[in-house]
Write a sequence for this structure.
DNA sequence: ATCATTTTGAGACAGCTTATCAATTTCAAC
DNA sequence: GTTGAAATTGATAAGCTGTCTCAAAATGAT
C-alpha cells in the first residue's frame, strides 16, 4: 500500500496486535495512515475526513482504533474542552501558546529551557513525560492600552 | 456572614458582577465560600457537599456559578477523564499538574524557574501574564511497571 | 476452503454539561 | 419600603461525547 512512509509505526502496531491476539484489518491500517499524517486530531474530525473516501467507516470503529493506538503507545489521549484530542506521539516539535484574554489572539512559541525544567520536575516525581500542555493567559500589547 | 476569610475573592467576584450587570445572590456567595475552601473540585462533588446544608441548590446553578468564577478569574476549568475539575486559582499562588495517563493520579507542583521563563517569553512577545496552565502528561512510577 | 475468533457498523445507551422556562429574587429608582 | 425591569434559580429536558451491544462480516491459523 501507501509508500514506505510509516513503516516503523505500522510495525509497532502489528507487534502490539500480535502480542494481544488482535487482528490486522483494513480499517486499522487506514486509520493509522490518516492518524500519522496529523499532529493531533479528534475522532469526530477523523470520521468526517475519512467519510469522503470510506463512507461506511463507523465512528465507533474510529474511537476503538484510536484507543487501540493509545494502548500501543502510538497515540496519546488528551481531554481538551469537551472533546478528546488524540496526539500523534511520533510528532515532535511541541508548540505552546500565549493567549490574549482581551482579543483572543494566540501566539505560538517553543522554549527548550522550559522543557528541560519540566523534565526535571517529572523525574523528581518519578514520572516519564509523554506530552505536555502549556498555556499563558494575559493581555497583548494592544489590549493592555 | 462567615468570617473575613475570603474577602479579597469576594471583592473580585463583586467587581466582576458589577462590571457585567450581574447580581450578587445568596447562592453565589454560598458557592464561592465552599469553592475557596477547596484546592479543586468537580461540580458534582460540590453538589453533594452542599446538599447537606442546602438540599434545594440545583446542580445547574453550581455549573453556572463555577463557570462564572472562571470568567471572573477566580477558578480555572481543567478537563480530565470525562469530568471537569474547577481549580482554585487563589490557592497558594498557582500550582501546576503532573498527570498520570495510566491511573489518573495527579501530583501538584510549583516551580519558580519555569514561572520566570514563562514571564520572559511573555515579555518578549509583548504580553502581560494574568494566569497560566501547565500540565505534564506521562506515566507515574507505578504505571510504568 | 474451513471455522473459531475477532472486528465491524449502526444504533442504542450512559455520563457529564448546558439550554429551557416559569417562578423567584435582586436592586435601582422612586 | 414599594415597585418593576432585569437577572437568577431550580427542575428537568435536551445535547454532546464516547462506549456498549449484537448480528453480520472479516481475519488468519489450520
Amino acid at each position: 500500500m501507501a509508500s514506505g512512509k510509516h513503516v516503523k509505526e505500522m510495525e509497532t502496531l502489528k507487534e502490539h496486535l500480535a502480542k494481544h491476539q488482535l487482528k490486522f484489518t483494513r480499517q486499522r491500517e487506514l486509520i493509522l495512515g490518516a492518524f500519522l499524517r496529523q499532529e493531533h486530531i479528534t475522532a469526530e474530525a477523523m470520521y468526517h475526513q475519512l467519510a469522503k473516501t470510506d463512507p461506511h467507516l463507523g465512528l465507533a470503529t474510529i474511537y476503538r482504533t484510536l484507543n487501540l493506538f493509545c494502548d500501543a503507545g502510538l497515540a496519546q489521549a488528551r481531554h481538551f474542552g469537551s472533546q478528546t484530542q488524540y496526539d500523534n506521539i511520533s510528532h515532535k516539535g511541541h508548540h505552546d501558546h500565549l493567549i490574549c484574554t482581551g482579543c483572543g489572539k494566540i501566539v505560538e512559541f517553543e522554549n527548550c529551557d522550559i522543557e528541560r525544567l519540566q523534565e526535571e520536575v517529572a523525574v523528581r516525581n518519578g514520572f516519564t513525560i509523554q506530552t505536555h500542555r502549556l498555556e499563558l493567559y494575559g493581555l497583548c500589547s494592544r489590549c493592555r492600552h
User: Anything to note?
Assistant: The first strand of chain B starts at residue 40 and ends at 42. Helices of chain B lie at 7-19, 26-36, 43-51, 59-71, 112-124.
